[in-house]
Amino acid sequence: MKLVFLYGPAAVGKLTVARELTRLTGYPIFDNHLSIDYAARLLDWGTPSYVSFLRALRLFTFRQMAQMGLKGLIFTFVYTPPSSDEFIGQVLEVCQQSGIEVLWVKLEAPPEVLLQRVVLPERKSLKKLSRPERLLQMLEQGALQAIPFGQSLRVDTSQLLPEQAARVIVQHFGLQAPS
Q1: What's the burial of 83, exposed, middle or buried (CB within 10 Å: 0-12/13-18/19+)?
Q2: Which residue of 23, 64, 101, 108 is 20 to 30 Å from 160, comparing CA positions?
Q3: Kind of pairing between the strands at 29-30 and 153-156
Q4: Phi then psi for 61, rounded to 5 degrees?
Q5: Which of 9, 63, 58 is nearest to 36 (CA)?
Q6: What is the reported pTM?
Q7: 10 Å Cβ neighbour count for 3?
């Protein structure tokens, strides 16, 4: 299985690009917010139990999808070092054990573009981060950095439409639509 690991800061267009990737490849999306919202219904957000459950849920999903013979899966994520590094290590371990090929894709856009996008009304309706001050905090915490555990394809979403960004990813990794 191929795990298309889309990451970048809030408002960079991860879910929008993921939807275009699904259209082109047929791979389902495991949106970061699905697991966040689910874990938050069961446990207090941000607590050690919440973080542990959230990571276990994501890793279980990767493992199960590979065991079920899924051709590919698209996952969206906000990487903020160093707090994300342990999870990334766990992802690599599960992928190695399960025969999953990780395709790192870092979506990028200048901070001024992210600040314009973060306040768009559709973000609030999707219950996504929509406060500029929180975005700036995430950027200060390192959300613009690349994951250092592998080579990432970098795609600037301020320069490309979502469909164009998805096509760049498909072409770069040689992904194919299901037959």
Answers
A1: exposed
A2: 101
A3: unpaired
A4: -65, -45
A5: 58
A6: 0.91
A7: 23
pLDDT of residue 84: 92
Give dist(CA 90, CA 169) in Å, integer: 24
Judged by DSSP in three states, 70 sits in coil
Helix (H, G, I), strand (E, B) or coil at 6: strand
SS (H, E, C) 79-135: CCCCCCHHHHHHHHHHHHHHCCEEEEEEEECCHHHHHHHHCCHHHHHCCCCCCHHHH
End-to-end Cα, the chain, rounded Å: 16
CB 129 within 8 A of CB 118: yes
What is the full per-residue pLDDT of the chain (179 aa) written as tens digits?
A: 999 999 999 889 999 999 999 999 999 999 998 999 899 999 998 899 999 999 999 999 999 999 999 999 999 999 988 889 999 999 999 999 999 999 999 999 998 988 787 777 775 555 666 677 887 787 788 777 889 988 999 999 999 999 999 999 999 999 987 66
Question: Which three-class secondary structure state does DSSP give residue 17?
Answer: helix
* Cβ neighbours around 51 below 10 Å, total: 16
Is residue 70 within 8 A of residue 29, CB to CB? The reply is no
Identity at 76, one-letter amino acid code: T
